[in-house]
DNA sequence: TAAGGGATATGCT
DNA sequence: GCATATCCCTTAT
């Protein structure tokens, strides 16, 4: 599926699953960092106790109610940035948290930002990938489907001679809360 | 594997 | 004012 506005304006659990295997691109002064999304988590509706929207519209949850296809970046624990992708129609609060990516391009830059050369430690966590991709509050609200954007989601090119290139996706349903999708057997996911 | 520190925007009293 | 948060890292058992 092509990544344009309608891609994000759909039920969050569908977007969640489709985002797995897609490419996160961060452009910065000439070079760019890219990675394949291998783990993500859904937050949807005011009835989801894990969502910022659980207690209604506040300054913090406001962007969840905004138009789909934009980034919702915020700071937690005073030092870690989180990247969410807004889904569903305007006024319905929902998003997908990007939890882990498999680093592809710009790895040298990521190593520098993360201060580790362990590939498995580069982007295996929501705050880790933000650090590796230089994502902070300045990118809050940015459009993710414009080719001009410095942060965007792209469809992965189908590799030649590889028939079954789509990743094997696992879905976990939390007890009373979140849904998490991940690439089965990927060493780049955040949990052990 | 477990425990504790870090450092700040946000919401609640 | 105070408590808490979609977490990471270091240090200690």
What report would you give on this structure?
It is globular and about 45 Å long. The protein has one domain: 3-methyladenine DNA Glycosylase, Chain A (Roll), CATH 3.10.300.10. It contains five helices and eight strands, in the order ααβββββαααβββ. Strand 4 and strand 5 form a beta hairpin. The model has no long low-confidence stretch (mean pLDDT about 95). With about 190 residues, it is an alpha+beta fold. Strands 1, 2, 3, 4, 5, 6, 7 and 8 form an eight-stranded antiparallel β-sheet that branches. The structure holds a DNA duplex (13 and 13 nucleotides).
Number of strands: 8
Shape field: globular
User: Class by helix and strand content?
Assistant: alpha+beta
What is the name of the CATH topology?
A: 3-methyladenine DNA Glycosylase, Chain A
Beta fraction of the residues? 25-35%
Assigned CATH superfamily: Methylpurine-DNA glycosylase (MPG)
Kindly summarize this structure in a few lines.
This protein is α+β, with helices and mostly antiparallel strands.
Give a topology summary.
Layout: H1 5-8, H2 12-19, E1 23-28, E2 31-44, E3 71-76, E4 80-86, E5 94-103, H3 107-114, H4 119-122, H5 126-132, E6 151-154, E7 169-173, E8 179-183
Antiparallel strand pairs: 1-2, 1-6, 2-5, 2-8, 3-4, 4-5, 7-8
The chain binds a DNA duplex (13 and 13 nucleotides) through residues 41, 43, 50-52, 55, 58-60, 74-80, 82, 84, 97, 99, 125-128, 131, 137, 178.
């Amino acid at each position: 599926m092509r990544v344009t506005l309608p891609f994000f304006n759909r039920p969050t659990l569908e977007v969640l699953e489709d985002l797995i295997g897609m490419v996160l691109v961060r452009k910065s002064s000439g070079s760019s960092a890219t990675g394949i999304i291998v783990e993500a988590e859904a937050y949807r509706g005011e009835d989801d106790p894990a969502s910022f929207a659980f207690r209604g519209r506040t300054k913090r949850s406001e962007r969840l109610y905004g138009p789909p296809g934009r980034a919702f970046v915020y700071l937690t624990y005073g030092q870690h940035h989180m990247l969410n992708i807004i889904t569903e129609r305007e006024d319905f609060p929902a998003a997908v948290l990007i939890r882990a990516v498999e680093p592809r391009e710009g790895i040298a830059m990521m190593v520098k930002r993360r201060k580790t050369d362990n590939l498995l430690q580069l982007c295996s966590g929501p705050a880790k990938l933000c650090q590796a991709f230089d994502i902070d509050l300045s990118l809050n609200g940015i459009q993710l489907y414009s080719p001009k954007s410095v942060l965007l989601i792209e469809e992965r090119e189908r590799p030649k001679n590889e028939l079954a290139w789509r990743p094997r996706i696992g879905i976990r349903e939390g007890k009373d809360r979140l849904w998490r999708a991940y690439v089965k057997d990927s060493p780049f996911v955040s949990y052990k």
